[in-house]
Amino acid sequence: MSAEELTVDRDRCMGSGQCTFYAPNTFDLDDISVAIVVDAHGDADDKIDMAVTVCPTRAIARATSGGAS
């Protein structure tokens, strides 16, 4: 079985908020306006994909880690 992981490179994030616009149940901005993942499955996949795509600094990554089935 594999698990999907969303990560935000906090050094690259500029806090534009695009991710929170497209996937508001998945991303939020913290107290210093850096994106965080609040629920990796909070929005539909197409919304999360859009948030990843529109990130101006490409700070969001979506990876699948595989395990033995």
Largest sheet: 2 strands, antiparallel
Q: What is the overall number of helices?
A: 2
Assigned CATH architecture: 2-Layer Sandwich
Oligomer class: single chain
CATH topology: Alpha-Beta Plaits
Say how many strands there are: 4
Radius of gyration: 12 Å
Count of folded domains: 1
Quick one: overall form?
A: globular
Provide the structure class. alpha+beta
Q: Termini, distance in Å?
A: 5 Å
- For the record, the CATH class is Alpha Beta
Order of helices and strands: EHEEHE
Strand order, main sheet: write it out. Answer: 1-4
Helix amount: 10-25%
Average pLDDT metric: 91
Q: What proportion of the residues form beta strands (DSSP E)? A: 25-35%
Spans where pLDDT lies below 50 across 5 or more residues: none
Structure description:
With 69 residues, this protein is of the alpha+beta class. It has one domain (3-65): Alpha-Beta Plaits (2-Layer Sandwich). Helices cover 22% and strands 26% of the residues. The chain is built from two helices and four strands, in the order βαββαβ. The chain has helices spanning 18-22, 45-54, and strands at residues 3-8, 27-29, 35-37, 60-65. It has a two-stranded antiparallel sheet. The radius of gyration is 12 Å and the shape is globular. The mean pLDDT is 91.
What would you say about this model in short?
The protein is an alpha+beta fold and 69 residues long. The chain has helices spanning 18-22, 45-54, and strands at 3-8, 27-29, 35-37, 60-65.
